[in-house]
Amino acid sequence: MLTLLPVLAFAFGTMMVTMIAYAVLSKRSVTLDQRLREVGLPERRAEANADPQQIAAFLRRVGERLPKSPAELTKIQARLVQAGYRKPDALFVFLGIRFACALGLFVLIATPIVIRPNLALALMAAAIGYVVPAMFLARIAKRRQHRIQLSLADALDLLVVSVEAGLGLDQAMARVGQELASAHPDLSGELRLVNLELLAGRGRADALKNLADRTGVDDLRSLVAMLIQTDKFGTSVANSLRVYSETLRTKRRQRAEEAAAKTGVKMVFPLVLCIFPAIWVVTIGPAAIKFIRVLGPLQVGK
Protein backbone atom coordinates (compact mmCIF):
# COMPACT_ATOMS: atom_id res chain seq x y z
CA MET A 1 0.00 0.00 0.00
CA LEU A 2 2.90 2.37 0.70
CA THR A 3 4.07 1.99 -2.89
CA LEU A 4 0.81 3.55 -4.10
CA LEU A 5 1.33 6.76 -2.17
CA PRO A 6 3.82 8.27 -4.67
CA VAL A 7 1.46 7.42 -7.52
CA LEU A 8 -1.43 9.10 -5.73
CA ALA A 9 0.70 12.11 -4.90
CA PHE A 10 1.72 12.37 -8.56
CA ALA A 11 -1.93 12.18 -9.66
CA PHE A 12 -2.93 14.84 -7.14
CA GLY A 13 -0.08 17.09 -8.26
CA THR A 14 -1.03 16.61 -11.90
CA MET A 15 -4.60 17.58 -11.13
CA MET A 16 -3.45 20.75 -9.34
CA VAL A 17 -1.15 21.71 -12.23
CA THR A 18 -4.01 21.13 -14.69
CA MET A 19 -6.33 23.35 -12.68
CA ILE A 20 -3.76 26.14 -12.57
CA ALA A 21 -3.15 25.82 -16.32
CA TYR A 22 -6.87 26.04 -17.06
CA ALA A 23 -7.16 29.13 -14.86
CA VAL A 24 -4.21 30.85 -16.57
CA LEU A 25 -5.30 29.99 -20.12
CA SER A 26 -8.87 31.07 -19.59
CA LYS A 27 -7.98 34.27 -17.78
CA ARG A 28 -7.91 36.35 -20.94
CA SER A 29 -11.29 35.17 -22.23
CA VAL A 30 -12.86 35.52 -18.78
CA THR A 31 -11.49 39.06 -18.51
CA LEU A 32 -12.88 39.97 -21.94
CA ASP A 33 -16.32 38.57 -21.07
CA GLN A 34 -16.22 40.44 -17.78
CA ARG A 35 -15.45 43.75 -19.52
CA LEU A 36 -18.26 43.18 -22.00
CA ARG A 37 -20.68 42.55 -19.13
CA GLU A 38 -19.51 45.67 -17.35
CA VAL A 39 -20.03 47.79 -20.47
CA GLY A 40 -23.43 46.33 -21.33
CA LEU A 41 -24.83 45.71 -17.81
CA PRO A 42 -23.19 47.99 -15.24
CA GLU A 43 -25.64 46.94 -12.54
CA ARG A 44 -24.36 43.35 -12.66
CA ARG A 45 -20.67 43.96 -12.05
CA ALA A 46 -20.82 42.16 -8.73
CA GLU A 47 -22.38 39.10 -10.38
CA ALA A 48 -19.69 39.06 -13.09
CA ASN A 49 -17.01 38.67 -10.43
CA ALA A 50 -18.80 35.83 -8.67
CA ASP A 51 -16.76 32.76 -7.91
CA PRO A 52 -19.55 30.27 -8.71
CA GLN A 53 -19.42 31.30 -12.36
CA GLN A 54 -15.69 30.58 -12.51
CA ILE A 55 -16.20 27.23 -10.79
CA ALA A 56 -18.99 26.37 -13.23
CA ALA A 57 -16.78 27.37 -16.17
CA PHE A 58 -13.98 25.14 -14.88
CA LEU A 59 -16.34 22.21 -14.34
CA ARG A 60 -17.72 22.71 -17.84
CA ARG A 61 -14.22 22.54 -19.36
CA VAL A 62 -13.50 19.39 -17.37
CA GLY A 63 -16.77 17.81 -18.48
CA GLU A 64 -16.08 18.59 -22.14
CA ARG A 65 -12.82 16.62 -22.01
CA LEU A 66 -14.25 13.51 -20.37
CA PRO A 67 -15.07 10.37 -22.40
CA LYS A 68 -18.75 10.32 -23.27
CA SER A 69 -21.35 7.75 -24.23
CA PRO A 70 -24.11 9.02 -26.56
CA ALA A 71 -26.82 6.93 -24.88
CA GLU A 72 -25.81 8.08 -21.40
CA LEU A 73 -25.57 11.72 -22.53
CA THR A 74 -29.10 11.53 -23.92
CA LYS A 75 -30.46 10.22 -20.61
CA ILE A 76 -28.59 12.81 -18.57
CA GLN A 77 -29.72 15.62 -20.87
CA ALA A 78 -33.35 14.52 -20.56
CA ARG A 79 -33.04 14.34 -16.78
CA LEU A 80 -31.48 17.81 -16.65
CA VAL A 81 -34.31 19.25 -18.73
CA GLN A 82 -36.88 17.58 -16.48
CA ALA A 83 -35.12 19.09 -13.47
CA GLY A 84 -35.31 22.56 -15.03
CA TYR A 85 -31.70 22.99 -16.22
CA ARG A 86 -31.97 23.99 -19.88
CA LYS A 87 -28.69 25.83 -20.46
CA PRO A 88 -26.44 24.35 -23.16
CA ASP A 89 -23.51 23.90 -20.78
CA ALA A 90 -25.58 22.23 -18.02
CA LEU A 91 -24.68 18.77 -19.30
CA PHE A 92 -20.93 19.37 -19.21
CA VAL A 93 -21.15 21.09 -15.81
CA PHE A 94 -22.93 18.03 -14.43
CA LEU A 95 -20.29 15.71 -15.89
CA GLY A 96 -17.60 17.87 -14.32
CA ILE A 97 -19.35 17.77 -10.94
CA ARG A 98 -19.64 14.00 -11.08
CA PHE A 99 -15.98 13.61 -12.01
CA ALA A 100 -14.90 16.05 -9.28
CA CYS A 101 -16.93 14.21 -6.62
CA ALA A 102 -15.53 10.83 -7.62
CA LEU A 103 -11.93 12.07 -7.78
CA GLY A 104 -12.22 14.06 -4.56
CA LEU A 105 -13.54 11.13 -2.54
CA PHE A 106 -10.92 8.81 -4.03
CA VAL A 107 -8.07 11.16 -3.08
CA LEU A 108 -9.59 11.76 0.37
CA ILE A 109 -9.75 8.05 1.21
CA ALA A 110 -6.60 6.95 -0.62
CA THR A 111 -4.36 9.45 1.19
CA PRO A 112 -3.73 9.55 4.98
CA ILE A 113 -5.81 12.70 5.47
CA VAL A 114 -8.78 11.24 7.32
CA ILE A 115 -8.19 7.52 7.76
CA ARG A 116 -5.53 4.96 6.98
CA PRO A 117 -5.09 4.63 3.19
CA ASN A 118 -7.11 1.79 1.73
CA LEU A 119 -7.37 1.23 -2.01
CA ALA A 120 -10.59 -0.80 -1.81
CA LEU A 121 -12.34 1.84 0.27
CA ALA A 122 -11.02 4.54 -2.07
CA LEU A 123 -12.49 2.80 -5.11
CA MET A 124 -15.77 2.34 -3.28
CA ALA A 125 -15.79 6.01 -2.32
CA ALA A 126 -15.09 6.99 -5.94
CA ALA A 127 -18.04 4.86 -7.08
CA ILE A 128 -20.27 6.54 -4.49
CA GLY A 129 -19.08 9.97 -5.62
CA TYR A 130 -19.88 9.02 -9.20
CA VAL A 131 -23.44 7.88 -8.38
CA VAL A 132 -24.52 10.46 -5.79
CA PRO A 133 -24.82 13.48 -8.20
CA ALA A 134 -27.12 11.46 -10.46
CA MET A 135 -29.26 10.54 -7.46
CA PHE A 136 -29.54 14.19 -6.42
CA LEU A 137 -30.45 15.17 -9.99
CA ALA A 138 -33.15 12.48 -10.14
CA ARG A 139 -34.51 13.71 -6.80
CA ILE A 140 -34.68 17.31 -8.05
CA ALA A 141 -36.42 16.19 -11.26
CA LYS A 142 -39.01 14.16 -9.32
CA ARG A 143 -39.77 17.08 -7.02
CA ARG A 144 -40.28 19.37 -10.00
CA GLN A 145 -42.52 16.80 -11.71
CA HIS A 146 -44.55 16.52 -8.51
CA ARG A 147 -45.00 20.30 -8.38
CA ILE A 148 -46.12 20.37 -12.02
CA GLN A 149 -48.53 17.51 -11.42
CA LEU A 150 -50.11 19.31 -8.46
CA SER A 151 -50.45 22.55 -10.42
CA LEU A 152 -52.03 20.92 -13.46
CA ALA A 153 -55.58 20.99 -12.04
CA ASP A 154 -55.49 24.76 -11.52
CA ALA A 155 -54.06 25.25 -15.00
CA LEU A 156 -56.87 23.16 -16.52
CA ASP A 157 -59.53 25.20 -14.75
CA LEU A 158 -58.01 28.42 -16.08
CA LEU A 159 -57.74 26.89 -19.55
CA VAL A 160 -61.43 25.94 -19.51
CA VAL A 161 -62.44 29.45 -18.42
CA SER A 162 -60.20 31.10 -21.02
CA VAL A 163 -61.37 28.89 -23.89
CA GLU A 164 -65.04 29.29 -22.97
CA ALA A 165 -64.49 33.06 -22.81
CA GLY A 166 -63.57 33.05 -26.50
CA LEU A 167 -59.78 32.72 -26.58
CA GLY A 168 -58.03 30.24 -28.82
CA LEU A 169 -56.01 27.43 -27.37
CA ASP A 170 -52.67 29.14 -28.05
CA GLN A 171 -53.80 32.44 -26.53
CA ALA A 172 -55.36 30.57 -23.60
CA MET A 173 -52.10 28.75 -22.81
CA ALA A 174 -50.17 32.05 -23.00
CA ARG A 175 -52.69 33.68 -20.65
CA VAL A 176 -52.60 30.79 -18.20
CA GLY A 177 -48.80 30.91 -18.23
CA GLN A 178 -48.93 34.56 -17.21
CA GLU A 179 -51.52 34.00 -14.48
CA LEU A 180 -49.66 31.07 -12.90
CA ALA A 181 -46.29 32.83 -12.75
CA SER A 182 -46.47 33.48 -9.01
CA ALA A 183 -48.44 30.44 -7.82
CA HIS A 184 -46.92 27.72 -10.02
CA PRO A 185 -43.71 29.00 -11.65
CA ASP A 186 -42.63 25.61 -13.02
CA LEU A 187 -45.74 25.01 -15.11
CA SER A 188 -45.89 28.70 -16.01
CA GLY A 189 -42.39 28.55 -17.47
CA GLU A 190 -43.25 25.46 -19.50
CA LEU A 191 -46.38 27.06 -20.93
CA ARG A 192 -44.46 30.20 -21.81
CA LEU A 193 -41.88 28.10 -23.59
CA VAL A 194 -44.68 26.46 -25.60
CA ASN A 195 -45.93 29.91 -26.54
CA LEU A 196 -42.44 30.94 -27.68
CA GLU A 197 -42.17 27.81 -29.83
CA LEU A 198 -45.53 28.60 -31.42
CA LEU A 199 -44.46 32.18 -32.10
CA ALA A 200 -41.24 30.88 -33.67
CA GLY A 201 -43.29 28.91 -36.22
CA ARG A 202 -43.31 25.41 -34.74
CA GLY A 203 -46.51 23.40 -35.14
CA ARG A 204 -48.87 23.08 -32.22
CA ALA A 205 -48.57 19.29 -32.09
CA ASP A 206 -44.77 19.44 -32.02
CA ALA A 207 -44.77 22.15 -29.35
CA LEU A 208 -47.14 20.14 -27.15
CA LYS A 209 -45.08 16.97 -27.62
CA ASN A 210 -41.97 18.89 -26.59
CA LEU A 211 -43.85 20.05 -23.48
CA ALA A 212 -44.63 16.44 -22.53
CA ASP A 213 -41.02 15.34 -23.17
CA ARG A 214 -39.54 18.23 -21.15
CA THR A 215 -41.65 17.59 -18.07
CA GLY A 216 -42.03 13.80 -18.10
CA VAL A 217 -45.35 14.02 -16.20
CA ASP A 218 -47.82 11.29 -17.18
CA ASP A 219 -50.90 13.45 -16.63
CA LEU A 220 -49.48 16.20 -18.78
CA ARG A 221 -48.52 13.68 -21.44
CA SER A 222 -52.11 12.38 -21.59
CA LEU A 223 -53.38 15.98 -21.73
CA VAL A 224 -51.11 16.65 -24.70
CA ALA A 225 -52.39 13.53 -26.46
CA MET A 226 -55.97 14.64 -25.85
CA LEU A 227 -55.31 18.15 -27.21
CA ILE A 228 -53.59 16.76 -30.33
CA GLN A 229 -56.53 14.42 -31.00
CA THR A 230 -58.99 17.24 -30.41
CA ASP A 231 -57.15 19.44 -32.88
CA LYS A 232 -56.95 16.63 -35.41
CA PHE A 233 -60.63 15.61 -35.30
CA GLY A 234 -62.02 19.12 -34.84
CA THR A 235 -63.99 18.50 -31.64
CA SER A 236 -64.74 21.12 -29.00
CA VAL A 237 -61.64 22.05 -27.01
CA ALA A 238 -63.64 23.46 -24.09
CA ASN A 239 -65.69 20.29 -23.63
CA SER A 240 -62.60 18.09 -23.93
CA LEU A 241 -60.74 20.17 -21.35
CA ARG A 242 -63.69 20.09 -18.97
CA VAL A 243 -64.02 16.30 -19.23
CA TYR A 244 -60.29 15.84 -18.76
CA SER A 245 -60.31 18.20 -15.76
CA GLU A 246 -62.95 16.06 -14.06
CA THR A 247 -61.00 12.92 -14.92
CA LEU A 248 -57.81 14.42 -13.51
CA ARG A 249 -59.50 15.33 -10.23
CA THR A 250 -60.86 11.79 -9.98
CA LYS A 251 -57.32 10.46 -10.47
CA ARG A 252 -55.99 12.78 -7.76
CA ARG A 253 -58.66 11.57 -5.32
CA GLN A 254 -57.86 7.95 -6.13
CA ARG A 255 -54.13 8.60 -5.62
CA ALA A 256 -54.88 10.18 -2.24
CA GLU A 257 -56.98 7.18 -1.24
CA GLU A 258 -54.22 4.84 -2.40
CA ALA A 259 -51.62 6.75 -0.38
CA ALA A 260 -53.89 6.63 2.68
CA ALA A 261 -54.34 2.88 2.26
CA LYS A 262 -50.57 2.39 2.12
CA THR A 263 -50.01 4.30 5.35
CA GLY A 264 -50.72 1.30 7.57
CA VAL A 265 -48.20 -0.88 5.75
CA LYS A 266 -45.55 1.85 5.79
CA MET A 267 -45.99 2.37 9.53
CA VAL A 268 -45.08 -1.25 10.30
CA PHE A 269 -41.31 -0.75 9.97
CA PRO A 270 -41.08 2.40 12.16
CA LEU A 271 -43.28 0.71 14.76
CA VAL A 272 -41.21 -2.48 14.85
CA LEU A 273 -37.82 -0.76 14.76
CA CYS A 274 -38.42 2.36 16.86
CA ILE A 275 -41.55 2.17 19.00
CA PHE A 276 -41.90 -1.49 19.98
CA PRO A 277 -38.38 -1.77 21.50
CA ALA A 278 -39.09 1.23 23.72
CA ILE A 279 -42.44 -0.26 24.79
CA TRP A 280 -40.80 -3.59 25.59
CA VAL A 281 -38.12 -1.90 27.67
CA VAL A 282 -40.73 0.05 29.64
CA THR A 283 -43.11 -2.89 30.19
CA ILE A 284 -40.77 -5.86 30.46
CA GLY A 285 -37.73 -4.06 31.88
CA PRO A 286 -38.88 -3.78 35.52
CA ALA A 287 -40.10 -7.40 35.54
CA ALA A 288 -36.78 -8.56 34.10
CA ILE A 289 -34.89 -6.65 36.80
CA LYS A 290 -37.01 -8.27 39.52
CA PHE A 291 -36.46 -11.72 38.02
CA ILE A 292 -32.73 -11.11 38.03
CA ARG A 293 -32.76 -9.91 41.64
CA VAL A 294 -34.82 -12.91 42.81
CA LEU A 295 -33.17 -15.66 40.73
CA GLY A 296 -29.64 -14.29 40.97
CA PRO A 297 -29.03 -15.35 44.60
CA LEU A 298 -30.50 -18.78 43.87
CA GLN A 299 -28.02 -19.31 41.03
CA VAL A 300 -25.16 -18.21 43.30
CA GLY A 301 -26.33 -20.61 46.05
CA LYS A 302 -26.22 -23.54 43.64
Domain unit count: 2
Work out the radius of gyration: 29 Å
Terminal CA distance reads 56 Å
Please outline the major beta sheet. none
Topology, number of strands: 0
Find the structural class using helix and strand composition. mainly alpha
State the helicity in percent bands: over 70%
Helices and strands, in order, run as HHHHHHHHHHHHH
Percent of residues in β-strands: under 5%
**What is the mean pLDDT?**
81
User: Helix segment count?
Assistant: 13
Shape: flat
Enumerate the spans where pLDDT stays under 50 for 5 or more consecutive residues: 26-30, 41-49
What would your notes on this structure say?
Helix content is 84%, strand content 0%. The chain has 2 domains: 4-141, no CATH class; 145-259. The protein has 13 helices and no strands. By secondary structure, the chain is mainly α. Mean pLDDT is 81; it is low at 26-30 and 41-49. The protein has helices at residues 4-25, 27-40, 45-48, 51-64, 70-83, 90-110, 119-164, 169-179, 185-199, 204-215, 218-233, 237-266, 268-301.
Salient structural properties:
84% helix, mainly alpha, 302 residues
